[in-house]
């Protein structure tokens, strides 16, 4: 086994295909940053379409690099580009069609819904929750309070989300949604295991489905990896033991390991407006003495001292029962 095969995260990816596709994606990202699309009746429409191409290529390159084994520290630094390019497309497209509510991704299309949940999950797993408000600004005008999984994932990084009981795609997402509402960890683990088993077949209408069968220079470059990133996010957020499904081909276990091992002290530097507030999860080391507020919970802030582990929060859960539970803590002020 060579170094590439040892480092890749999915067995369908060959080094030859990776080396062929990666520079093409990079070239396309750069090209569409400088050029308008050839179609479109107005300049704004042509710019919007070019921005859509660029956002798509940026997302595909990110997934290809993850599948190829790129460092998660490096990918954490690259994640803002995915939001930047999607934001650019959103702005230009809304201007082109004179509609400030139109989203960049359509939840009714399972491939685009998957991409939206994937982006939110990547922000949570790579500890880039400061990007979540930008994603919600793009998606909320159309989809606020319209999908349970969308709201559940965002609620772990943002205040003021909605408790709703409806979603766009029952298959396979009902299984994953159920995992957030079980009474025991064992039930949630079974839900996620079942979700992973159902996930690929349920994605039959996604444009990338079965693309690994043509992952070569002659037949095309649609394959960049098959990843149920939202299953990893649920596992991390619910603090579940992933042993029963850890080796599933579509489960990105490295993302869960990274999320759990992330050194909270990397977040301890003073935060600028560009990076958002300092946030630390229950069980991680407090980077600064002060008053910390649990995001998503209407409870007073608590004093935590630097070097201590962040506590649970005592607050109502999703069923209204008061209990100790993990939280995402946001630095509020110095003590």
UniProtKB/TrEMBL annotation:
Source superkingdom: Bacteria
Residues of the PoNi C-terminal domain: 146-255
Coiled-coil regions, chain positions: none
Gene3D superfamilies according to UniProt: PA2201 C-terminal domain-like (1.10.3920.10)
Record field: transmembrane: none
Listed name of the protein: PoNi C-terminal domain-containing protein
Species per Swiss-Prot/TrEMBL record: Paraburkholderia terricola
